[in-house]
Amino acid sequence: MSITIIHTADWQLGKQFGNIPGDPGAALRDQRVKTVTAIAQLAQARQADAILVCGDAFDSNTVAEQTLRKMLLATKQFSGDWVFIPGNHDPARAASVWTRAQALRPARDDVQDNVHFLVHPEKPLTLQNGALAILPAVLERHHEADDLTAWFDDAPTPPGAIRIGMAHGPVPDCLPTDEVHNPIAANRAAAANLDYLALGDWHGTRKINDRTWYAGTPEPDRFGSTNPGNVLVVTIEQAGAPPEVEEVRSGEFVWKKIEYSIHNDADLDALTLQIRRLGADVNRLNRLLLRLKLDGIANLELRQKLDHWIAEWKSRLHYLEVDDQKLIAKPTENDLDQIARRGFIRTASNRLQELASNLENPDRDIAKAALMRLYQKRVQG
Q1: Is 127 helix (H, G, I), strand (E, B) or coil?
Q2: Global pTM value
Q3: Which of 216, 212, 156 is nearest to 184 (CA)?
Q4: Are residues 343 and 307 in the same domain?
Q5: 110: pLDDT confidence band, cut at 50, 70 and 90?
């Protein structure tokens, strides 16, 4: 019997995005629930048998009840089985988001029989009349020293059943991380005779081997992740057959980083073109979050243009973060003449230039701002 699953993880519903204030952060929080609905609709359209959520469905065990209810309502968009395991953000403690979800089960409008919260260690779940066996690694704490998938090796399942493991944690030596908590053996799929091992924790889609994959977060949530914003559609024709794994784009927002040197107007024009191309790649600029790190040398006229440029692009992108600590303000003689040719003000501007150019000066930003203020006041009259 062929089985098709949607493999996803790391939704982190309720994530606050404290570093992105105001409406942009609120929109990111709302989108995470909308993405769950989109996953459900994808599963329904593909006639999947189950959606496997491999940990960190929630950002913490203390998420607001409204967030929990919104997620449960989103599950109604898919009539197949939903299978959840806890992650390091939402471990299956005695009192957790999972016990709260279970408490809602009597309210039939909130939780259906096809939603399974696997919170009991070493207890498999059999679905599809015994054709599919799910082996969950259940985190009961944020951090475990032992490999909680070890029991998979000897776990009995119905004859001929497709065996799928679910776990949340790093595979040592297979990821660019030094994380040692919640380890998962790289050969677990082979050792446990699994047809597929569905993993969560790593926020980018990543193949460990033919039968072991990280789905990554379906909605990107940080700068620097590699290949986030996907779910995996996995089809297994029968027990022992190799899985067919398809990456499907699910993310609404795109997070990018750019490092750029500014020295003249042409550089600024080229940066503008680069951002417009990024916007074309993501279909629209207002779903792009950009972290821009600038260096170079700019005179006061160029610095003023750059400030206007930043203000404009902050209004056009979903979010723009600019780090210009390494962009040196170096006024030309003409810039300084615009402020004052001689006298006290010229002396002050010269001193501010010295302070603004000193990378070790703790008041460098104040000096830069004061110098620009003098320039703008003189130029604008």
Answers
A1: strand
A2: 0.88
A3: 212
A4: yes
A5: very low
